């Protein structure tokens, strides 16, 4: 409902995307009938809702191509980009966050913390431009943008093309995630149960692995769900920097052309994926932390 209403609040008529300069009233009315903008808003909404229940976003006003098929095609770029960046961010952030907490009195821990703060302050699109300048223009190691015409039919070429976009999102995400890992680890390192385990003879590494990892991971998992959703939305922006044929270019083109079905399809799928990721994070948190299951059982 929000998607539908906000789009219709924008000035102008989506039928203009089908008209050339100097169109006569008959052509204008025919274009409005084609896109359905001549119908009352309540009728347009009922049609939109009816199609949505069948998971059908209709056809593009401009190309007349099915929006659902186009969204699924473009997800083959956006989803791999998001998940590869997400995995790389975890690989970077978790060990560095743990090191900066466990070795908080060392100089390199301070450096790691300072670098993470700097990474948070840098916008993702600017990070992408910097990486393009270094690795694409100066070193010429990776392409500055684009995607193979054969798509994943040429996997090595596709991975080579996605390296810089993946690295861009991963670095920005890792900087934010590192702070949460560090804070969670510091809380565990100073906990009574970890000191008790060490007093009973365990080494720090053994006590932290047996008792600290699970407790430190519980708050981080909820953050991972948020970060994955943010990475997906960030990928839509980064795709513009690297000229990738994902959901980002489809959304921008739909907004420029007032192509309501395309915009509604992209935003609905994006919102749905973010909600699904949040749900998976909540379920994972309950599976890892028995206290959540016990508290739920006590209330029932």
Automatic annotation (TrEMBL):
<keyword id="KW-0813">Transport</keyword>
<feature type="transmembrane region" description="Helical">
    <location>
        <begin position="159"/>
        <end position="178"/>
    </location>
</feature>
<keyword id="KW-1003">Cell membrane</keyword>
<dbReference type="Pfam" id="PF00528">
    <property type="entry name" value="BPD_transp_1"/>
</dbReference>
<feature type="transmembrane region" description="Helical">
    <location>
        <begin position="81"/>
        <end position="102"/>
    </location>
</feature>
<protein>
    <submittedName>
        <fullName>Peptide/nickel transport system permease protein</fullName>
    </submittedName>
</protein>
<keyword id="KW-0812">Transmembrane</keyword>
<dbReference type="InterPro" id="IPR035906">
    <property type="entry name" value="MetI-like_sf"/>
</dbReference>
<dbReference type="InterPro" id="IPR000515">
    <property type="entry name" value="MetI-like"/>
</dbReference>
<feature type="transmembrane region" description="Helical">
    <location>
        <begin position="262"/>
        <end position="283"/>
    </location>
</feature>
<dbReference type="GO" id="GO:0005886">
    <property type="term" value="C:plasma membrane"/>
</dbReference>
<feature type="transmembrane region" description="Helical">
    <location>
        <begin position="220"/>
        <end position="242"/>
    </location>
</feature>
<keyword id="KW-1133">Transmembrane helix</keyword>
<keyword id="KW-0472">Membrane</keyword>
<dbReference type="GO" id="GO:0071916">
    <property type="term" value="F:dipeptide transmembrane transporter activity"/>
</dbReference>
<feature type="transmembrane region" description="Helical">
    <location>
        <begin position="114"/>
        <end position="139"/>
    </location>
</feature>
<comment type="similarity">
    <text>Belongs to the binding-protein-dependent transport system permease family.</text>
</comment>
<feature type="domain" description="ABC transmembrane type-1">
    <location>
        <begin position="75"/>
        <end position="281"/>
    </location>
</feature>
